[in-house]
Design goal:
- It is a single chain.
- The protein folds into two domains: 32-157, Immunoglobulin-like (Sandwich), CATH 2.60.40; 165-307, Immunoglobulin-like (Sandwich), CATH 2.60.40.
- The protein is built from two helices and 25 strands.
- 9% of the residues lie in helices and 42% in strands.
- It is mainly beta and 315 residues long.
- β19 and β20 (251-252) form a beta hairpin.
- It has helices spanning 2-24, 26-30, and strands at 43-45, 55-60, 64-65, 67-77, 90-97, 100-102, 106-109, 117-124, 138-145, 148-152, 156-157, 165-168, 174-176, 182-184, 187-197, 200-209, 224-226, 232-234, 238-243, 251-252, 254-257, 260-266, 275-283, 286-288, 303-307.
- It starts with a helix and ends in an 8-residue tail after the last strand.
- Bound molecules: copper (II) ion.
- Copper (II) ion is lined by residues 95, 97, 102, 126, 137.
Length: 315
């Protein structure tokens, strides 16, 4: 018995000391509830010492939707609670599904303003919740501020009503698939915005592609992509044609750079009424179609966006 006591005593003292020092650190007392999240989803934070984790990083979003979505990252000094201005968060987005993981195109975040708020833009290729509420997978936004990381898991809902994204492809344009087998490349056309007033609307589009499950770059004239054998090729030119009068007339969209395209002076749409925007995509002279097959005019040669211009406009 005496022997046992002697053996246990030092361990017991050591444990008490360890507990005492943990509860005394500033880090452990301020570590929760950051990061916080306003949309009922769960969050985790990479837990490091207070010295390398100087920020409170908070995520908020009205609702994240398939297609273009935006969220706010707020950065505060953890010790003082003061907003941190002029710092630019970066982030990656990964969806974990039973069939594997993939990323999605992201635009990135603005520098934080005087309130510590940064606006981040992402283009979700997939919702994490179906209309019936069943889950298709989990999105993880890994946000980095300085050397500190925080991970958020937003619920991404399906777009309803207006079309948020469309996919066009050409079966001759392939990438190396997940298993190494050639796979037809997807070109994602995301609705960026629809602004203006009846008789004079502007439609903006963002074009991106899947290079691999974890690479989804924007596509612009001059972009370098890889084919199924890894050989690089240059995108030049891209032609996106738009029709807003049920394919009676077509006109080319203007390329604005970084994957953005726009069409101004659209006369056919009416505020508050759902119109139909048709888009045709040609890259390096090759037509991209809804099924990847050769063009059958009027059947597979364009994708369709249901588009309802808003009644009220903020100027
Ligand atoms: Cu997915």
């Amino acid at each position: 018995m005496r022997f046992l006591k002697l053996l246990l005593a030092p361990i017991f003292v050591f444990s008490l000391a360890a507990c005492g020092s943990l509860t005394d650190t500033a880090d452990s007392t301020t570590d929760t509830p950051t990061p916080t999240n306003t949309d009922n989803s769960t969050n985790t934070e990479t837990d490091t010492s207070a010295a390398t984790e100087p920020y409170s990083i908070t995520y908020s979003a009205a609702m994240e939707l398939e297609g273009k979505s935006m969220f706010t990252i707020n950065v505060k000094d953890k010790a003082t609670g003061t907003a941190v201005a002029d710092i630019t968060p970066t982030f990656t987005a990964t969806m974990t599904m039973t069939s594997g993981s993939h990323s999605t195109p992201v635009k990135g975040c603005s520098a934080t303003n005087s309130s510590g708020d940064s606006t981040c833009t992402i283009y979700y290729v997939m919702a994490s919740k179906m209309a019936n509420g069943s889950s298709t997978g989990t999105w993880a936004l890994k946000v980095t501020v300085g050397n500190q990381e925080a991970t958020f898991n937003p619920d991404v809902m399906m777009a309803t009503g207006d079309t948020a994204k469309a996919i066009l492809k050409n079966n001759e344009d392939k990438i190396a698939g997940m298993t190494g087998d050639p796979e037809t490349r997807k070109l994602f056309l995301f609705k960026e915005s629809l602004m203006g007033t009846t008789g004079n609307h502007t439609f903006k589009l963002f074009l991106a592609t899947r290079e691999s499950m974890m690479m989804h770059p924007a596509v612009a004239t001059g972009s370098k992509l890889k084919n199924e054998t890894g050989t690089e090729w240059t995108v030049d030119p891209i032609v996106i044609e738009i029709s807003t009068d049920n394919e009676t007339t077509w006109s080319a969209m203007t390329e604005d750079g970084d994957g953005y395209f726009s069409k101004t002076e659209i006369a056919d749409l009416v505020d508050g009424t759902t119109g139909n925007i048709k888009l045709k995509l040609t890259i390096n002279g090759n037509a991209y179609t809804t099924d990847g097959m050769a063009v059958i005019a009027g059947i597979n040669d364009s994708c369709s966006f249901a588009a309802t211009p808003a009644m009220a406009h903020a100027h």
